[in-house]
Structures are given as C-alpha cells and as structure tokens.
Design a protein that fits this description.
It is a single chain. α5 crosses α7. This protein is about 40% helix and about 15% strand. The N and C termini lie far apart (about 55 Å). It has about 260 residues and is α+β, with helices and mostly antiparallel strands.
Length: about 260
C-alpha cells in the first residue's frame, strides 16, 4: 500500500502579499507596471469602448499627480512607457500624448476626495451599464455581490450633455468602493491598482448575475446579517488584491516591457 501523503506545513505554503516599497521611484515603477497591465486586461475582457475608459493611479511622491492611459490609445498595447502623468488640473507633466481632460477631471476629483484611493477605474462593461440603466444598486443575491453590500452607491442622475460634474461624482461615491452612475456604468476605487480593478470586474460580474437571475425569476437575497458578515470577510482591499492575482498572471509576462 502506498504511503499516505504528508500534509505540507502552513509556513511552506508561502503566499505573496502586496509589496511595500520604501523608495518612491520603485513604488512608482510598480504602480505604472500594474496600471499598464490592468489596462491590457480590461481591454481583453471587453471593458473598452472607443475612447471611453480610464484607470488612474496616484503618484507615490508628487502630490495631486496621477498616472493615466493616454486618450485614443487602445488598451491592448499599452506599456508603462505609454502612460501620462498629469496634475489634478489636467496638465500633462510627463508623456507625449493627449489627455482626456473631461474624464480625467472626474478621476482627479475622486482622488482628492479620497486620499485612501490609490487607483480609480472607470471602464465600460455591458452589464454594469445595463444595471445603471435601471438605476439600481447591486443586490446581495450571491456571495460575490455581498462584497458590495452597503459599500457602494448610486448616482441617480444623468448629467446634461453626458459630462458629469466631477465634484458631484466624488460626493456620490462618498466612503464607498464602488459607484453606479445612472445611465452610464460603474466606477470603482481601491488602495492599489489590483484592488480597484478587481472591484470593477467583480461588480460587472455581479451585475451580470443579477440581471440573469431577474430574467429567470425572482432572486432570493441574502439576509442583512449574513450579507454584512460576508462583506467583512470578502469585501476588503486585501481580499480584492488576492482575488486579482490569477488575472494578473495572465498579463504579467509582458507587464515589465517598458
């Protein structure tokens, strides 16, 4: 009879944690690498529509300055060298391409209102936009959706001309990690690029399941106490960072090509 397998000690199951860089230059390079990779991933997942869609990350050293994808460039081919650095007033400080000033103004306002928000994601997913057309919040109908329970908001208005007032968006988001902009779609924030992007993907998928369940019948919601407990377990940025790593592995092979 073969020997029984021996359990591997827990301390040998090392799991990578979010890196911490003391040197701002190294942290900047890390954030740009994750930002460029995240944009390529969002493009591959179909969360890009023409020139719409932006992800910003706060510079670790220069106050009120943020890295962002350039206007009119496809997500698929972006590398760290392609990113722009702009200040909160939309002046490009580094990079040779144009900035989408209107979209960037919303991101800058959110960053200013939320010092904890290292990254802001505003991309284009079909299910998030469909839910936004209904003017509804994400319902706690799945374990994954419970991560957003009482931790996201609805901006229940459509801006004139389709151009949102940046300060109103920031106020509508408040302390939460996600915002549904009525008739527009989703915006998410996080303490890292990884977390912010994961929250966008998770919210988009939760919206998809919610819409499918409603089309099939009457979804049964998780009760308040269980939804809160689930959010406390799975709704933090560390949980988001961990959940994002398998997706990051699909793009990291070219992420460092600067």
């Amino acid at each position: 009879m073969p020997d029984q397998p021996v359990p591997v000690p827990v301390d040998r199951l090392a799991f990578e944690m979010p890196p911490v860089h003391e040197d701002p230059a190294r942290e900047r390079a890390h954030r740009k690498e994750r930002l460029a990779g995240a944009l390529r991933l969002l493009g591959r997942l179909g969360y890009e529509d023409g020139v719409s869609g932006h992800v910003t990350v706060r510079d670790p050293e220069f106050e009120d300055c943020y890295w962002v994808n350039p206007f009119g460039r496809a997500f698929a081919g972006l590398r760290p060298r392609d990113l722009l650095l702009a200040d909160g007033d939309g002046r490009v400080l580094e990079g040779g391409r144009r900035l989408n000033e209107l979209a960037f103004a919303v991101h800058a306002a959110v960053h200013r209102a939320r010092p904890d928000a290292v990254a802001v994601v505003r991309a284009q997913g079909p299910y998030g936009r469909a839910l936004a057309c209904l003017g509804e919040l994400l319902a706690p109908v799945t374990q994954e959706a419970c991560a957003f329970y009482e931790d996201h908001a609805l901006m229940d208005e459509y801006p004139g001309g389709g151009v949102a007032d940046p300060s109103r968006v920031a106020r509508a988001l408040g302390p939460y990690k996600a915002l549904i902009l009525r008739n527009q779609g989703l915006l998410t924030v996080g303490g890292s690029v990884d977390a912010a992007v994961w929250w966008f993907i998770a919210a988009e998928r939760a919206a998809q399941v919610q819409l499918i369940a409603r089309a099939a019948g009457k979804p049964v919601s998780v009760d308040h106490r269980a939804a809160v407990a689930t959010r406390e377990r799975f709704g933090g940025d560390l949980a988001a960072w961990v959940s994002y790593q398998p997706l990051w592995q699909t793009v990291e092979d070219v992420a460092s090509t600067s």
